[in-house]
Amino acid sequence: EWRTVSVDDGVERLERRFWLQAPAAGDAPSPLLLSFHGQVGSGEEYRYHHDFARFGRSAGLAVAYPQGMDDGPSGTGWNVGTAGDLSTCSQANVESGCYASCCRRQTCGRCNWSTCHDDRALVRAVLSNLFDELCIDTSRVYLQGESNGGMLVHYLAQELPEMFAAVVPFYGLPLIGHAVVPMSQVLQTPATARQTAMLQLGGRGDVVIPISGGLSSQGFYYEPRVGIQRLWASIHECRAASAPVEVRWQGGATNVTC
Fold first, then answer.
1. Degrees (nearest 5) of the Cα angle 138, 45, 220?
2. Under a CB-based contact definition with an 8 Å cutoff, are residues 39 and 76 in contact?
3. Deepest of 49, 146, 149, 228, by most Cβ within 10 A of its Cβ?
């Protein structure tokens, strides 16, 4: 079912939507997954193409699919805190455009490509709504997103580190200089971030958001995946060196390795 929450994002109050797959009634509090679609996508379409709802029914998991904003030339998307930063793109081949919400905030620039509505406020509002109306285990709230939604997952892990047990970005990385911004909560209160685990998944042949970082095929500069992993290892006070892990899909026709 679609649900609506009222969100004050600093410039205006908006009615924002999310699709909810509620857990079956039970005695124990339910874990919660927030799952974010990619650029130009929708929460409704995204839920059709992922198995989270089916998994949720068998595991007592509540799943919410928030809807991104479409107030500019590049379609629906998420605010990941990079509007107005001219260092995140190349002048040569980038396609960009300023969204109405960025104009109102005076944060337009040639590297703008998505909305400036406050999606941190949206997440807080969604969580408040679900905590009030469902029996949710607040210590087991998880994030997943892909592409621009994966970028939002990185951003939310920085900005709201105390809220999530684990985050899983699919082929999404921060733009250059935004792995951790100086005033983010993850730097202000690093101890709170140690409760949050991270699993990153990316395509080795991805040229839109390359896992090695650097310039993408669309003209944007990204942080490298390995750098993000080392950053989170340091936050967790773990060894930064990577180690191979055997998975049940190892090798085979898809040549999967971890």
1. 85
2. yes
3. 149
